[in-house]
Design brief:
With about 120 residues, the chain is an all-beta fold. It is about 0% helix and about 60% strand. The strands form 2 sheets. Strands 2, 4, 5, 6, 9, 10 and 11 form a 7-stranded mixed β-sheet that branches. Strands 1-3-8-7 form a 4-stranded antiparallel β-sheet, with no helix packed on it. It is globular.
């Protein structure tokens, strides 16, 4: 099993920055990739950015050039640096661990990001 804990959310003005953290514990050796997702009220959960075990990254078009995903393997933490935030980025942000032999993976509890205009 893998446990994920997100932190770093908050209230920020448009144009500001936040850095989210996703700390993984448990059977972290089973993790193939970690993704950051977000869900705004009334909308479906969407992938924001992902990073594989070998460091490959991918981003949603809406955040390319503004968000950066990175990982600290020694600490088992994945970060999401969010710059030039927009009100449309307001959502609950979740991290998900894609693991071996588990099609659903594991989810954290989420952290709220609110961007005011």
């Amino acid at each position: 099993q893998v446990q994920l804990v997100e932190s770093g959310g908050g209230l920020v003005q448009a144009g500001g920055s936040l850095r989210l953290s996703c700390a993984a514990s448990g059977s972290t050796f089973t993790i193939n990739a970690i993704g950051w997702y977000r869900q705004a009220p009334g909308k479906k959960r969407e992938l924001v950015a992902g990073i594989s075990s070998v460091g490959s990254t991918n981003y949603a078009d809406s955040v390319k050039g503004r968000f950066t995903i990175s990982r600290d393997n020694a600490k088992n933490i994945v970060y999401l640096q969010m710059n030039r935030l927009k009100p449309d980025d307001t959502a609950v942000y979740y991290c998900n661990a894609e693991v071996v032999n588990n099609p659903y993976g594991y989810w954290g509890q989420g952290t709220q990001v609110t961007v005011s205009s």
